[in-house]
Amino acid sequence: MSIIDDYISQNKGSLEAYEKAKGLLPSGNTRSALYWRPFPLCMRRGEGSKLWDVDGNRRVDFNYNNTTLILGHTHPRVMQAVRDQMEKGTMLGAATETEPRLAEEILRRLKGSDRIRFTPTGTEANMQALRVARTYKKKPLIAKCLGAYHGSWDGVTLTPNSPGVPTGVGQSTVYFPYNDAGEAERVIKKHRDELAAVVVEPTMRDMTPRPGFLERLREITTQYDILLVFDEVISFRLGYGGAQEFYGVAPDITAMGKIIGGGFPVGAYASTDECMSPLKIPDAELPETANPVLGFSGTFNAFPLAMAGGLVVLEEMIQEKYDLIAGMGEEMRKGLRGVFAEEGLGVFVGGVGSFFFTAWTDQEVYDHASSMTADRGLANLFNIGMMNKGFFILGHPNVSAVQSREEISAALTAARETVREMKPMIRERAPHLFS
Ligand code: PMP
Questions:
Q1: Cβ-Cβ contacts under 8 Å for 11 (sequence gap 6 or more)
Q2: Are 127 and 153 in contact (CB under 8 A)?
Q3: Tens of pLDDT along 178-188?
Q4: Domain 76-316 coded CATH 3.40.640.10
Q5: Residue 6 C-alpha to ligand 1 middle, in angstroms?
Q6: What is the pLDDT of residues 339-396, one digit of tens each?
């Protein structure tokens, strides 16, 4: 049976759910990243490192809601904290005691940040962080990397000229390739009088920074008095103090999300007291003057369930756990490299810490252009082959702190079998991958 036929026969309930959704949602889907051909799975339940779909198939998760669930699904302490909060009310229309506790826990980890703001998503964390940067610097432009994702809003589209973006907004962003310090310097220098900030993911999705790249960005931005913003929505899981501690480069502003909300929608951005001054309510006697320069008043900012769950996640994530997941991530990277080499294939395996990813290209993947050389059809087929064998691989594959070494070795065996099943297709579509 072909990989696709096997998938269809295993997932009849998911197909039915998808067919129904297709009549109601564009492409039957609400998150573009969670769509794949021939149809996405419909999940019912998660526990620890496992997921169960509507057909009752059990899979080992290597996605964890795109890197969010660093302690796995339904972690007992997280669930208890969330239940306790839920019984007191989901939203109270006022600040809660948990908010400053989570703030303290995050700021302890971010050296150089004194203040933090919570948002409902990573998208809004970046959006507000960059607006604060523009306000603080009184300059209009932002520079970002080509292909970098900083959320679904107009100011930071993956590449220039994205559909639906007003011309003026599009013109407020300039681009440079990730890992190209020379080009970054050229773009920054050219726009230095108008640039408020440079925003970059310390590890761009699964691509890692070349030695010196982040350091050079730090030097150039300091030289031209431009703010450096690290989008650590994903990379914050790289270490106790995030990717900035891991790589030893400190930004001016840090945007976060995912792991800090205990599995609930969340975002946050942190910086120095000085940089966050546009958010400060001036001391004033008259209430009508008591407005910050910039007001962001999201109904679901600092969502109490996210604050409660996130606090437990960070309390649990001590140094040993970061070491544990980084060790398992390395086992996956090494194991996959071994599988591809032994099967005679030149496929790129990358990642760092708990991240591992495969790009179906014989080139090194280090920026947007090189990532575009990868064959997405083969990547999808590999993921589906792994799903057929009980492993949920998708998006930004990663391991969580509840992953077991047995799951890693079983996943590597499944990867080898999947690669063997794929060989006729690889020969047909991408013969150059055979070394
Ligand atoms: N920045 C990065 C680096 C991300 O990966 C994401 C989400 N994948 C976001 C921002 C947006 O976060 P959210 O989906 O919570 O809006």
A1: 39, 41, 53, 55, 57
A2: yes
A3: 999 999 999 99
A4: yes
A5: 33
A6: 999 999 999 999 999 999 999 999 999 999 999 999 999 999 999 999 999 999 998 9
**Residues near 387 by beta carbon (within 8 Å), at least 6 away in sequence:** 7, 41, 59, 393
Q: What's the rounded Cα separation, in Å, for the pair 350 and 308?
A: 34
- For the chain, the distance separating the N- and C-terminal CA atoms, rounded to the nearest angstrom, is 27
Rounded to whole angstroms, the Cα distance separating 47 from 49 reads 6
Domain 3-70+318-433, CATH: 3.90.1150.10
Count of other CB atoms within 10 angstroms of residue 240? 16
76-316 shares the fold of 3-70+318-433: no
Distance CA 143, CA 192 (A): 10
381 Cα–ligand 1 center, Å: 25
| Cβ–ligand 1 contact at 230 (below 6 Å) | no
Pocket test for ligand 1, best of 31, 119, 123, 236 (most atoms within 8 A of CB): 123
Q: What is the pLDDT of residues 235-265, one digit of tens each?
A: 999 999 999 999 999 999 999 999 999 999 9
Between CA 14 and CA 308 the distance in angstroms is: 32
Residues recorded for the chain: 435
Query: Among 87-91, 267-271, 286-290, 386-390, which stretch is predicted with the lowest mean pLDDT?
Result: 286-290
Give the position, in ligand 1's atom list, of the atom nearest the Cα of 258: 15
Single-letter code of the amino acid located at 406: E
CB 275 within 8 A of CB 244: no
The DSSP secondary-structure symbol of 283 reads P
Show me where the domains of the chain are located: 3-70+318-433, 76-316
